[in-house]
Amino acid sequence: MIKAINVEHREHVSQRTFEDVLASFMDVTGSVEDGFDAVAGALSDRESFERAFKEREGSSGFMRFAVIDHGAWLTRIYDRPTKAVMVILGNPLIAITMLRHHTGAGLNVPVRIYLYEDTKGRTLVSYDLPSSLMSSLEDDAVMAAARFLDARLMALATMIAGVEA
Question: Which UniProt key words apply to this protein (predicted)?
Fold first, then answer.
C-alpha cells in the first residue's frame, strides 16, 4: 500500500543565539539517552513504568531519546562550520495515548526536532507536526491524541525559540 500525505512543517526563526536555544532546550527536556529499552525492560508493571518515565521528563513534559550533533561532524570532517542538532524526543506516557489506538503511530513517536543555524546566522527550530505525519492512519482517536502532542511540541518550540512559527 502506498499513501501520499501532506505534512505540516514548522520553523521558528529565533532572535536568540544557537547556543542559547540549545541550552534552553536541554534545560526543559529530561533524558532517557541512557537507553529507553534498558529502563523500560527493567520495569514489570504499569505503575512502575509510569513513575520511572515521569521522573525522567523535563518541565516541558518531554525527554530526549537521542541527540545527533550534525554540526560536529560537518565541521570536523567536511570543514564546514555548522551548528545543527537533531533530537529524537518524546514521552512514552504521551505516546501511549496514540499507540493504544493504533500501533502504526509508533512510526512517528517519538518525534524529531531540529535546532540549527542557517547560512544567514539565524537560529531555527524546525519540526513536522505529528498529527500531519499520522494522518495516514485515518484514526480519529489517534488524531485527537496527536493534536495534543502537536500543541505540546509547538509550545516547546515557542518557549525555546522565544517566537512562534
Answer: Plasmid
Q: Which three cell numbers stand for residue 97?
A: 495515548
Measured from the Cβ of residue 98, the count of other Cβ atoms closer than 10 Å reads 27
Contacts of 162 (CB under 8 A, 6+ apart): 14, 15, 16
Residue ranges per structural domain of the chain:
9-161
Lookup result for grid cell 493534536: 147
Whose CA is closest to 129, among 114, 111, 141? Answer: 111
What is the DSSP-derived secondary structure letter of residue 21? H
Q: What digits encode the pLDDT tens for the residues 81-114?
A: 899 999 999 999 999 999 999 999 999 999 999 9
pTM over 0.90: yes
Q: Class of 9-161 per CATH? A: alpha beta
Instruction: Give me the residues paired with residue 68 across strands.
Output: 86
Angstrom distance (rounded) from CA 71 to CA 144: 35
What amino acid occupies position 59? S
Of 165, 116, 152, 162, nearest to 24 by C-alpha is 162
